[in-house]
Amino acid sequence: MIQLKDIHHVMYRHPDLQVIERFLIDFGLVVTQRCEQRIYLRGTGAQPYVYIAEQADEPAFGAIAFAVQQRQDLERASELAGASAVYRLNGPGGGEAVSLTDPAGRRIDLVHGLAPLPALPLRAALTHNSALDKRRLGTAQRPAKGPAQVLRIGHVAIGVADFKQALKWYTEVLGLLPSDLIIEGSKDNPVAAFLRINRGADWTDHHTIALFQAPQDRVHHASFEVQDFDAQCLGHQWLEERCQVPFWGVGRHLLGSQIFDYWSDPSGNLIEHFTDGDLCNESTPTQYTASCDSSLYQWGPQMTLEYFLGGRTTLKRPNR
Ligand SMILES: [Fe+2]
After folding, report:
1. What is the rounded distance in angstroms from the CA atom of residue 263 to the CA atom of residue 310?
2. What is the pLDDT of residues 130-178, one digit of tens each?
3. Cα(306) to centroid of ligand 1, in Å?
């Protein structure tokens, strides 16, 4: 079995790199390297990039990449049916990779050996005074205005035409574990799955890949972690003031508990800020929830049908 360490980056193809670069900077990412065909962007963590924007005639999803624990995991992966040989990455930090293809033909890269960069300065998380537990004494809350600093990529949600086949591949080939399954009728009829990385006793995000039954295969959104609730709200305000298109948020999901905020990027893809998500480990049992609207969020703006349709949106972008 291949041992994954964490999700590493996503790659999207965009028709206008200048426009997407401006958006992603306002979203809270930082450019590591730019060339004619590609822009590599990072969070505040040590990874040299968490997002690759690639030049293309039409918007398209490119790949999801996971870091593996050891180089042997790449060698093992290269022996899978349809896998590439181990090859060298030519982006910042170097490293090596193997490319796989999931049942829908989506490219899944496994990467290893990228040289880390020094972490970027990050605003400390705010100390909150709850009603009966006052911890901030004699100091004020003054988080600075600006983009929500992105720390890392957290997960990708994918609509799949053949749910059972996708669930089998992601759990058997990548070894992901179901934290939550949304079911219709009975436990043996899941229609959505929140899958986490198998990190044994170590705590890991409630989900790294979310799969849900959909009319067609489409990446629904990629999600990036920010420092705290104020970062999320200040980041929301920052993007709104720059006439970007809010999609859904701010609210709190049910399964995974993240505070969420979705945006439509200039190419029409959904991208999410999240904070305060649940963590799971080997002692966390799989939970089953009946499919209903309330399985998606606890509070927030009313969910629209467009959220379910996902992917490219038809929302009007205000003039700048
Ligand atoms: Fe999400």
Report:
1. 11
2. 999 999 999 999 999 999 999 999 999 999 999 999 999 999 999 999 9
3. 15
**Strand 209-213 to 96-101 pairing:** unpaired
Give the three-state DSSP class for 239: helix
Residue 9 Cα, ligand 1 centroid: separation in angstroms? 15
* 320, part of any domain: no
| Beta-carbon-side half-sphere exposure of residue 72 (alpha carbons within 13 Å) | 2
**3-class DSSP assignment, residue 268:** coil
Question: What residues sit around ligand 1, an ion, with C-beta below 5 angstroms?
Answer: 223, 272
What letter represents residue 212's amino acid? F
Any alpha helices (H) in 16-162, and if so which ranges? 17-27, 71-78
Query: How many domains does the structure of the chain reveal?
Result: 1
Q: Is the pLDDT of residue 307 over 80?
A: no
Q: The domain containing residue 170 runs over which residues?
A: 4-116+150-306
- Which residues, listed in sequence order, are joined to residue 180 by a DSSP beta bridge? 194, 287
Q: How far is the CA of 207 from the centre of ligand 1 (A)?
A: 9
**pLDDT score at 296:** 85
CA atoms within 13 A of residue 12's CA, in its CB half-sphere = 26
Q: How far is the CA of 255 from the centre of ligand 1 (A)?
A: 10
CATH number for position 16 = 3.10.180.10
Kindly tell me the sign of the dihedral angle through the C-alpha atoms of 177, 181, 185, 186: positive
**Parallel, antiparallel, or unpaired for β 190-196 and 177-183?**
antiparallel
- Cα dihedral 184→185→186→191 (10° resolution): -10
Q: Is residue 280 part of a domain?
A: yes
Question: Considering the domain boundaries, does residue 297 fall inside one?
Answer: yes
Helix (H) or strand (E) holding 6: strand 4-14
For residue 84, is it within any domain?
A: yes
Per-position b or e across 42-55, b if 16+ CB within 10 A of its CB: bbbbebbbbbbbbe
Q: 230: CA distance to ligand 1 center in Å?
A: 18
**Token pair for residue 188?**
């043996």
